[in-house]
Amino acid sequence: MLKLSISFAALAVLLPFVQAQSPVWGQCGGIGWTGPTTCTTGNVCQEYSAYYSQCIPSGQATSVSSAPSPPPSSHSSTSTAPSGASTSSAKLNQLAKSKGKLYFGTATDNSELSDTGYTAILDDNTMFGQITPANSMKWDATEPEQGQFTFSGGDQIANLAKSNSMLLRGHNCVWYNQLPSWVSSGSFTAAQLTSIIQNHCSTLVTHYKGQVYAWDVVNEPFNDDGTWRTDVFYNTLGTSYVSIALNAARQADPNAKLYINEYNIEYVGAKATSLLNLVKTLKSQSVPLDGIGFQCHFIVGQVPTGLQSQLSTFAAQGVEVAITELDIRMTLPSTPALLQQQKTDYQNTIAACSAVEACVGVTVWDWTDKYSWVPNTFSGQGAACPWDQNFAKKPAYDGIAIGFGN
Ligand code: G3I
């Protein structure tokens, strides 16, 4: 009986500590470690050295145990992660700036801002010096009915950028997707649609005048084979919709950088060639165009080797360039090998921007797997971001730091 009551007493003292558990890839032991020493369900605490133990998925215990095992460094910037974890203590926006870039940033979305664990990391402007609203400045969000503008969602992101002293990228004025049906299904004359584009871009850009570093004025104008997307804009106005939108944006905010933003232009091919030719044409016609956004939605192991050269090729036309929507997805489940390859892929992508003076910054298309768009679009794929769904930094984080020269 006495023995039993002692056990209960001991249990009561220990309970607060026993209950806390590390998430997958979180630290769970090592000399000097005072945090949880057990892992959440489905994971085991793997010892790598006297200094470092880490929660890994139960099924991966054997393969991970042969990985290198450095202790996490408290002052370094970056060392080799043992498996699924980052060891870098560097702050990415600080690193980007030390490399001469304007920012390292991230997309974010309004629905994410009530997640306090998320905002605790997002709000650190040594980590993120720039944000892009993933949805709330798009046409369907800002002009759902003709002439009726709603800026509440966009304003929330703009205000966040302001209060955190972060740059803001505006995304976007004209895109074939996320259009309200009054635009996409309307049958307009060329004059009518010209006026609709001018009114939309002008009102949107004017509303955020002075707050936006750069606008994606035109988003994704080309098909992958290099032909123009046959959306309502092209079908009604031909290629002229691009200059209509750019001119309206310039008039609305002469100080904002005006971009065309596109994907699958990160390697030589028909689509990149079409966009390059468009840049040349617009420049020869003195249409206001300041930048080209390389979205960089990549796949692990398939980052184009020509990325740096493509950034330079576009920059040679007198525009700045930026990596605007970076993520690198994999087929799930993630494995230590895939995470290490992803680290290399992030490193190479960042290094490409680092090496090109005209590449002003890098934006990840959200920093955590918790809010990545990828699984909703590519079934069975994900884990594309530098932080996992529990906000633990992945090896990819270290890859970014190394890519910025750290
Ligand atoms: O707002 C509705 C909500 O009312 C509804 O309940 C819910 C049900 O699914 O859907 C919500 O809309 C979703 C919206 O995101 C806001 O969360 C849409 O279904 C969903 O399709 C939409 O996805 C966005 C996607 O663009 C649309 O194409 C992603 O969040 C956004 O990250 C993504 O971003 C694009 C860039 O703008 C351009 N480049 C590619 C990139 C990735 O697709």
Account of the protein in words:
There is one protein chain. The protein is α/β, with parallel strands linked by helices. The chain has two domains: 26-57, no CATH class; 92-404, Alpha-Beta Barrel (TIM Barrel), CATH 3.20.20.80. The chain is 37% helix and 18% strand. It is built from 15 helices and 13 strands. It has helices spanning 2-19, 61-64, 92-98, 116-122, 139-142, 152-163, 181-184, 190-207, 232-237, 240-252, 270-284, 307-315, 336-355, 374-377, 395-403; strands at residues 27-29, 43-49, 52-57, 103-108, 130-133, 167-175, 214-219, 257-262, 291-294, 297-299, 320-331, 359-364, 381-382. The strands form two sheets. The chain has an eight-stranded parallel barrel with strand order 4-5-6-7-8-9-11-12, surrounded by six helices. Strand 11 (320-331), helix 13 (336-355) and strand 12 (359-364) form a beta-alpha-beta unit. Helix 12 (307-315) packs parallel to helix 13 and helix 13 (336-355) packs parallel to helix 15. It is globular. The protein starts with a helix and ends with a helix. Bound molecules: ligand G3I.
TL;DR of this structure?
This protein is α/β, with parallel strands linked by helices and 406 residues long.
